[in-house]
Each structure stands twice: as C-alpha cells, then as structure tokens.
Amino acid sequence: MATLQHMSTAEDIVLANFKNGKLQINDKAGPSSNSPEFTYYKNVDTPDERLRKRRILVAKSQSLQYVGYNHGPEAPKANSACKYLVGVLDKKTNKMKVYDAQYYQLRPWLHNDMQPDQDETDQPTEQTYIEKQDALTEAFGSLRKRRAVDSRHKSKVSNEAIEKSAKVAVTIAKSQPTTPIKETMDSEGVLPCCDREATKVEDVYKLDDLVAPHLLEALKKVSGKFCNANIQRIQEWQKQKTYSSFVLDHLRTLANEPTDEKQKKAAILLYLHNLSIMYALKISDLNKKIPFEGDTPMSVKKHLLDSFTQSTLVGDGSRQKRCLPKRMKDKMISHALVLALILDDYKTKLSPLQSAFKVGVRILESHARALGCRVTSIAEVAEGGASLPSKSPTAQKVAELSLPLRITYTPKKKLGGKKR
Known about the structure:
- By secondary structure, the chain is an alpha+beta fold.
- It has three domains: 3-123, no CATH class; 131-175, no CATH class; 185-401, no CATH class.
- 35% of the residues lie in helices and 18% in strands.
- The chain has helices at 49-52, 129-140, 143-155, 159-175, 207-210, 213-221, 224-227, 231-240, 245-251, 259-279, 298-308, 326-343, 350-357, 361-370; strands at residues 3-7, 13-18, 37-42, 55-60, 65-69, 84-90, 95-109, 310-314, 319-323, 347-349, 373-378, 396-401.
- Helix 6 crosses helix 10 (259-279) and helix 10 (259-279) runs antiparallel to helix 12.
- The longest helix has 21 residues, at 259-279.
C-alpha cells in the first residue's frame, strides 16, 4: 500500500479541460499542429485577499484562444463544492505526494477586444442611449416591445446602402439626354420645343429638336428597304400587317420624291414605326428585349428608351427598372403628330395615326390642338360619287398647322362629385 504525503506549494497545480472536446495536436488528427501555449494570470495590484486569489488560464493555439476562470459565472460549478488534488506516485519508494490543484474549464474566446495585438481604433465604440435602451428591451422587455425593436432594426437602412443608392441615382441622371429647354416648352415636357415667334410654319417645330441630325443620318443608312420598296413589296407588307397604314401610305408616294428627300422621309418613317412599337408595349415587356425594327441602329434605340421611358431604382438601389407612365405616352403622341405634320407639309390626316398607335381620335385631336393645330373634318366620297357631310361619323379629321398658332390646352376633368 502506498504512503500518502500532502505537499504545500506557493501555487496550486493547474488542471485544464477543453469544454469543446479533446484538443488535437497531431498533424493527421486535426488543424492544430503544435501544442498550445499556456499563460497563467493572477491579480497582484490589489490588497484585497479575495481578489488576489482570482486566476485566469489562457491557452493559445494557431487558430483560437481558450480562456478559463476560477471565479465568476465562467468558473466550473463544482469548484465551490469540491477540492481537487493531484497525486504523484514514486514507484521505487511506493510513496505518493499529494498537491492541491485548481480546475479550469477552457472555452473558445471569440471576442476581438481581448486580443493583445489589437489597435485602439478597433475598440468597441460606446453605445448610444437608444442602443442601450434596445439592449435592455431585448433582455427584459415584453414580447410586444421586443418585436417592435426587431422590426425597427430590420427597417434600418445602413449608410453604405444610402451612399450606394445615391451614386446609382447620379449615374442615371448623368446618362439622361440633355436637351436644351426653351421658354416655349410646356412645364411637363410632353410637347416638343416650339418657337411661338416663328414667321414661317416650318420654323415652329424643327426636325432637329425631335430627331438629332446624327440619329437621322444613322437612320438614313438603314432605310434602304423603304426607299427601294415597290408596289408588290408594299402589298406584301400590307397583307402581313408588318407596318401600319400610315407608313404604307407614305411609302407609296416616296418613289416620286428626290433622292435626298426620299431618304429623309424614309428615316422619319422608320423612327415613327419604332415609336409606335414602344407605345404598344406593356409594362412587363419594357425590361425585356424590345422588338425594335431589326436594322434600327443602337444609338436610336438608346435615344428612344432614354427619351420616352423613366428609370427607377429597385431593391437596394443596385438595379434599374424602366417604366412608361402616361406622361411619356402623351409625349410619344405629341412627337408622332409633329413628325406626321413635317411629312405631310403640315396638314395630316389623323386616322392613319390612330390606327398606328391604337388611340382614340379625340386624344389625337386634343394633342393636335395643344400643338397649335386647327382640327377640321373633311367630307369623304361615298359609293356612287355622293359627298358625305363633314359631320358624318366616317368623316376624316385633319390637323393643320398654320400661323398664327392656336395653342389650347384641354383642362383635366375632375373625377367624382355631383354637379350643382
């Protein structure tokens, strides 16, 4: 039987246990290739004997730090009820020396503020009053108050997201076309630039203000199929409903025009055709590949999208979504009417445009009057050569631009309510 001898030392022997399991120190067994470095801390700056007994054991491995205490809530619960001893047996003399021991349970330490190499700038900032209130609510508040705090935190927008959204908005604003604004332009930007002081009807609305010269030149290069279209080709397009009656009616008269005038009118017709395609699009189709005319130059497509659609930010501001509000649709109708007036020497029928844009004739009339046109009805010849009255439902509406201008705006009707 071994003889026991209790030994007293200045410091108790340290016993350590890793709470998460056995620490692997073998290369093949785990990520830590070396034994951890242990450091033992004690409080020597206080005269209080109770505080001087507090110890902290730190084990530092390649990837983590482990910390154990002999005091406080992190200390093992059994320390207050148990006394730990370590026995060392001498097999030759069969005597065992018994030493007092301290038991520590080491836990991974994940807080960066306890790392010795941390800079002062990385120290946690002092909490604001609201943050302290939120912390108390999350710890001791009722379920309703905790839900309110959680909802507010989810709705909070970070400064980084705001700055990112602002940068995207500035980028969109810079990409928008910069058209010089004239005094005669209407406040909502629906009507084209108008020179009310013009002495010639040709100078009231200029083609360059609607279609820039470089865009017109780009359209001329791809308008050969319009310039060279014969009767058979036009009839085939009419049968297949490839183009509207407005475009086809003008193509029938292009053969008699000079070459330069023919290319100019063909380019305008191609522009009008793409404008009617955009007008008929649904909101869901705006962000897909728009079916423009196949040969339309990319610069013209970009001009149409930038001039007649609006871009809005969605999500966190990283994506753009195009929309086509009613104001932009009105802008398309006004531009199409002016281009039709230029093609028809400032006197055009509204029925072909009505079929091209699928709008009511009254809408075209109100836009024509807002542009300064005079809208009249012309009698059509019925079967047998009899002339129908100008007020007949089948009479043609004609918009004519002449000087002096007769610009009138149709007031918006009030919705709801009873007349008194």
